Amino acid sequence: MQALANDQEVLNYIPQRPPFVMVDTLVDVVDKQAKSSFLIKSDNVLVNGNSFSEGGLVENMAQTAALYAGYNAQKNNAKTPIGFIGAIKNLKVNTIPEVGQRLYTEVNLINEVMSVQIVRAEVKDENQQSLASCEMRVFIQPEDAA
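The structure corresponding to this sequence follows.
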């Protein structure tokens, strides 16, 4: 399967900019689900020593949710929305990945009420082992407030 967006193209769908970009490929968007991947590099701002931080895992999940929202907005000829993490529930970090590993992240939209999206997110490694998961509430800033 060919990716929907790679490297610089993902910047069309998310509001974040380098050096704070924690996704590098939009793998797929189907219905209420998005999949991304991300290669952890040694110069990443959320790498400590040789390990990607817990905050990096959370940001990777949040940016995958942003990819989902941005991709769908552009499909509907709207601007890429700006979102803010409002709450994180049931965060579970099983393993801290290291530099050189590729993360595979999936977000599923559970519910959307007005400008709040509730997503379930999970990060896996190349062997499909779960590294981290959570439920996240993302507040989407209305377009006229930007």
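Residues 52 and 66 are 20 Å apart (CA to CA).
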